[in-house]
Amino acid sequence: MTENLPPCPECSSTFAYEMGALLICPECGHEWSPASAEPADGAAEDGVIKDSVGNVLADGDTVTVIKSLKVKGSPSGIKAGTKVRNIRLVQGVDGHDIDCKIDGFGAMQLKSSVVRKA
After folding, report:
1. N- to C-terminal Cα distance for the chain?
2. Which burial class, exposed, middle or buried, applies to 103 when counting CB atoms under 10 A from its CB (0-12, 13-18, 19+)?
3. DSSP code for 86
4. CA angle, 65 as apex, 62 and 68 as ends, to 5°?
């Protein structure tokens, strides 16, 4: 166990192990070959976050929510068409990569797949 194995490309777990010619992640069960992991690391998006249409997002952008979202603990959710100003991009949990404040709801995190750059 002196060699360092690459993290899982699916869940970024560092607990990958070798089984024959494959690397296996015990947390999510993803299997991949070490040869395919090398080019994927070089061709990574380098932290580029895109909206639902494919526009590149940056800190301070204004986005529009494209579909109605349910908010846990709130009787009404976030309606489609709601503008969110001054977003901040983060490495969130479960794909929630936008940190923002929404009027009437407060601070929350959104997925970039449910917003469109305004």
Report:
1. 50
2. exposed
3. S
4. 160
